[in-house]
Design brief:
The chain has one helix and 30 strands. With 354 residues, it is mostly beta strands.
Length: 354
């Protein structure tokens, strides 16, 4: 076990490791600390290089008032929905930092916002559910849209002079033929919060505000599965939201997190399962690249391995004294390392048995 501590503010909301992601084939660990959203300016992004042990902070303009930033698998692009500017998608080329005056143009989102955005496994596109209009109090017209990143990998078509509204300085905005493509109509439904794409790029999952999950086969542009929940009346609206969704490699299961539980729905003939009171409140989970286990991190400060077919806990880890919550977890692409994030900028990394 190895421990990494970031230099972060002492305030709990600014020092909690909310999300982790291995990029560049597992060479770098991207660390999100703090919170995004309309509060603005409370999220910081750090990159830890495992081979050298060095950690650097990415001070990036697009993190301001952004929701769930994501980094492409190769570590080149940072993307986020900016809710302050009418649901625009901002994309930054991390190989050309904003300090040199280079900015990629924003892509306009829909009036009613986007789901969590996700990169395809090869990093060639961004995918998101667009909420196109509102139908009644909680129902939206929705589609699944693609944002190809190919244009951003080529030289720009030209440049347009802009003025930075924060600094008043001039800068050159490159012009690209970039925008949303290939909208796949989805059934009207609740607002989508979380999304995932299968490791082979074949399936897309969307988890909504009511705990439901849709699965789309991308090549056929068709919804192939829809899972709904029946909640006890005592379950609050915010507890029903699917906060994370993921596929088990092999395409046999889609797993989601809502109300502090894991819920697994089969895409074949197997039986669904969910965790119960025997497991502490689950804050996050990750699926091993081989599909042989799930790691759930919990409010009691423990990380637990679960069998993806049954939800049975097979191994439990705890490193800190007391109930120091763990909030985020991810596996390296080769499956040999797992990382979990907690409070006060603390990240634990450990080896996973082959």
């Amino acid at each position: 076990m190895r421990e990494l501590r970031l230099k972060v503010p002492k305030r709990a909301d600014l020092s909690t490791v909310r999300r982790l992601q291995f990029v560049a084939g597992g060479a770098d660990l991207v660390i999100w600390v703090g919170e995004g959203g309309t509060g603005g300016g409370t999220m910081t992004l750090h990159v830890h290089t495992l081979s050298t042990g060095a950690t650097r902070e990415l001070n990036n303009d697009i993190l301001w008032e952004s929701m769930e930033p994501v980094v492409s698998p190769d570590g080149r692009f940072l993307a986020a929905e900016n809710v302050y500017h009418s649901s625009h998608i901002y994309v930054e080329d991390l190989t050309r930092r904003s300090e040199d005056g280079f900015h990629l143009p924003a892509v306009t989102g829909p009036e009613f916002g986007l789901s969590e955005i996700v990169f395809t496994p090869d990093g060639s596109e961004l995918l998101a559910v667009r909420h196109l209009s509102q139908q009644g109090r909680v129902t939206h017209a929705r589609d699944l849209a693609r944002l190809p990143l190919g244009p951003y990998r080529e030289p720009p078509l030209g440049y347009e002079q802009k003025i930075n509204p924060l600094t008043g300085l001039l800068y050159q905005m490159p012009i690209y033929d970039a925008g949303w493509r290939d909208g796949i109509p989805l059934p009207p439904g609740r607002y989508v919060h979380s999304t995932a794409i299968s490791a082979d790029g074949r399936l897309f999952a969307a988890g909504d505000a009511g705990g439901g999950v849709l699965v789309v086969e991308l090549a056929r542009a068709e919804v192939i599965a829809s899972f709904r929940r029946v909640w006890p009346a005592s379950t609050g609206e915010s507890e029903r939201v699917v906060r994370r969704v993921a596929f088990v490699p092999g395409g046999e299961w889609v797993v989601s997190r809502a109300s502090g539980r894991l819920l697994a729905d089969p895409l074949g003939a197997a039986k669904p399962w969910k965790t119960g009171s025997e497991l502490a409140h689950v804050n996050d989970f990750a699926v091993h690249p081989s599909g042989r286990l799930i790691c759930a991190v919990c409010a009691d400060g423990r990380a637990r391995y679960l069998d993806p077919a049954t939800g049975v806990v097979t191994q439990t880890f705890k490193w800190a004294k007391g109930a120091q919550q763990l909030y985020s977890v991810c596996f390296a692409p080769d499956g040999l390392t797992c990382a979990a994030g907690g409070t006060a900028g603390r990240i634990v990394l450990w080896d996973v048995d082959a």
